[in-house]
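Hi Y.,

Following your request, here is the sequence exactly as I used it, all 270 residues.
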Amino acid sequence: MRRPLLTLVVTAGWAAAGWAAAALARGDEVARIVPHGPPGVCTVATWRADWPGCDFEDGVVEGRLSVVASAAGLAYRVDYAPHEIGPERGGVGWRFPVPRAEALELAYTVTFSRDFDWVKGGKLPGLGGGPENVTGGRPATGANGFSARLMWRADGRGEAYVYHLHPPEKHGESLPFPRDFRFPTDKPVRVRLRIGMNAPGRRDGRLDVWVRPGDAAEEHVVSRADMEWRTVADIGVDSVLFQTFHGGGDRSWAPTRPCSTCYEGIIVSR
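Below is the corresponding structure, written out as tokens. Let me know if you'd prefer a different format.
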């Protein structure tokens, strides 16, 4: 897999935000993804320039990814296709390589459209690692990889959705947010997801998720210190899994009307 030379970009709008200033003060950024526009449907060439090194994409050629204006500058908008599920037909998806690490954090701001159709649920971006794409029902073996993405659920509930060595069922494991949590619509939500690798042979890996809707206080919604991501030492966190779509394994998860999410302030840090 080709590893891109990553250029870190700071804009005045982001530097003014508290979360951006904190990240910059730590000096731990690995990558900051900035839409370069122009506003409108994102071309494959523009997507490749913004996300170098990806081996595949879903949804960009089909026109479901756009660059739009936001209060901080530019954002990505994903338009979900009515009556469809999955990244191939319903949303977008790609795997963006970053330098392998024992621990990484992905942060981004997501805004659900005012008319968002939650249905049963869908995926939001996360992190992963290993030589294979361990999603979509492919089990983690300890040597092939792992993943941790977020999900919205019915009525705007939230969870982490994780492929690791000890899932309770065939597919990934759902780690619900607190019962009273709901993703709002038409309001930005700052998300941070952090993976810490386990020592091979031990269940001491970490998964942490924090969310901050609007101006509310940040909430630590998932905290696990017993994860077994791997059985070998030569895999680590090496990818942003930028995947967002409705689903679910059948069209009972599909939206019945057009809806969208917007993403900005995408930062990977140690």
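Residues 12-269 form a domain with the Jelly Rolls fold (CATH 2.60.120.200).

Thanks again,
Q.
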